[in-house]
Amino acid sequence: MQPRDLSDHVAYEAGRGIEEVARELDRDPSEFIKLASNENPHGPSPAAAVAIRETASSVSSYPKAAHADLTTAVAGRWNVTDDQVWLANGGDGAIDYLHRTTLDPDDAVLVPTPGFAYYGMSSRFHHGDVREYELSKADDFTQEADAVLEAYDGERVIWVTSPHNPTGSTMPLAEIERLADETDEETLIAVDEAYGEFADGESAIALLDGWDEFEARDDVAVLRTFSKAYGLAGVRLGYAVVPDEWADAYARVNTPFAASELACRAGLAAIDDEEHVVRTVETTRESRAYMRDDIDAHVWESQGNFVLVDVGDASAVAAEMQERGVIVRDCSSFGLPGCVRITCGTEDETERAVETLNDVLDDLDVEPESAGEPENPDAEVADP
């Protein structure tokens, strides 16, 4: 017996860990810093760490009460009903739930390129097709409805990543609203806000629930996670906020007890730990600004907890930085072979990453690609 044909499925490439790299290079793990996976440099919320320790003795029980309590806490955070909050095993679990709810066999999703590989992977797992719209490097990866609508051909789900990984760009709410207005009634606009805490401006939940000048919509869903700002990537906890009309669907598409007892108790503690989130966001903004000011290559504006850097030869630069103890993300797997992505670290980590990258660029004499031609080719290009 053989598995079904998986030839169209592409394996997800995660950022490399310190232990893995140290083992490969036969070095001490303490020599390395990892800025490749957009993890929280301050670790988990301290309150969540306490909750995990205190919950350890009760993991023999299913997380029914904790699941309900966390759902209520998240709903209160966003001023939506409990039925609109779908807890999941990480953000990728929420992606699966949205696809289970919307996709019939041979339906299609429209995803950004470059972008998060799991949108397409999940669609194929659910026997859906995958089509792409481009975020153009020449346009600094600007996100506007027009680029999506030009590629749109009645797909069942359109994925918008805001802030976008790996570029850090965002799509304004007015553009998301226009996208929803100008697509079919049965097309869901799924907005992935995994990095939303680090961005300026309101969440797209404003569109879904009719905040401010927006009318409430039934064709928008928003994904969020506890992995980034809350520092809980290892316990796998995410959620989707869905239209009120979808209240009955969750029980039909979710796995039993979608989030673990440890994850739910950690999330309950973390959601009230505002001090940790504020500290994390402040560190991110300082790190982003430092990297944009001090890296000797083009760094795109970012609203995430990372920056994308044009280094010319990502594989060579990332490999040499790794040799020197700084692990960053080679973005070749995103279709950006000239770029690396660097997670925002602590002050010391950020300074070390910048110094290492500048030294590597100088030593390798790599020629970064242009981020786009100026309107006036004779004009002096400003130092990025």
Annotated CATH architecture of the largest domain: 3-Layer(aba) Sandwich
Cα shape: globular
> What is the gyration radius calculated from CA atoms?
21 Å
- Low-pLDDT ranges: 371-384
Within the largest sheet, what's the order of strands? Answer: 2-8-7-6-5-3-4
Level-1 CATH class name of the largest domain: Alpha Beta
Main beta sheet, described?
A: 7 strands, mixed
Domain unit count: 2
CATH superfamily of the largest domain: Type I PLP-dependent aspartate aminotransferase-like (Major domain)
Let me know the number of strands: 12
Helical run tally: 13
The percentage helix is 25-40%
Q: What letter string, H or E per element, gives the SSE order?
A: HEHHEHEHEHEHEHEEHHHEEHEEH
Mean pLDDT: 91
Please give the alpha-carbon distance between the first and last residues.
56 Å
How much of the sequence lies in strands comes to 5-15%
What structural class do the secondary elements suggest?
A: alpha/beta
CATH topology group of the largest domain? Aspartate Aminotransferase, domain 2
Main traits of this protein?
12 strands, Aspartate Aminotransferase, domain 2, seven-stranded mixed β-sheet, PyrdxlP-dep_Trfase_small, alpha/beta, pyridoxal phosphate, 36% helix, Aspartate Aminotransferase, domain 1, globular, Histidinol-phosphate aminotransferase
Task: Please provide a written account of the structure.
Keywords: Amino-acid biosynthesis, Aminotransferase, Histidine biosynthesis, Pyridoxal phosphate, Transferase. Pfam families: Aminotran_1_2 (PF00155). It catalyses: L-histidinol phosphate + 2-oxoglutarate = 3-(imidazol-4-yl)-2-oxopropyl phosphate + L-glutamate. This protein is α/β, with parallel strands linked by helices and 384 residues long. The protein folds into 2 domains: 18-43 and 275-364, Aspartate Aminotransferase, domain 1 (Alpha-Beta Complex), CATH 3.90.1150.10; 46-270, Type I PLP-dependent aspartate aminotransferase-like (Major domain) (Aspartate Aminotransferase, domain 2). The chain is 36% helix and 15% strand. It contains 13 helices and 12 strands. The strands form 2 sheets. The chain has a 7-stranded mixed beta sheet, sandwiched between helices. Strand 3 (108-113), helix 5 (117-125) and strand 4 (129-134) form a beta-alpha-beta unit. The relative contact order is 0.16. Residues 371-384 have low confidence and may be disordered.
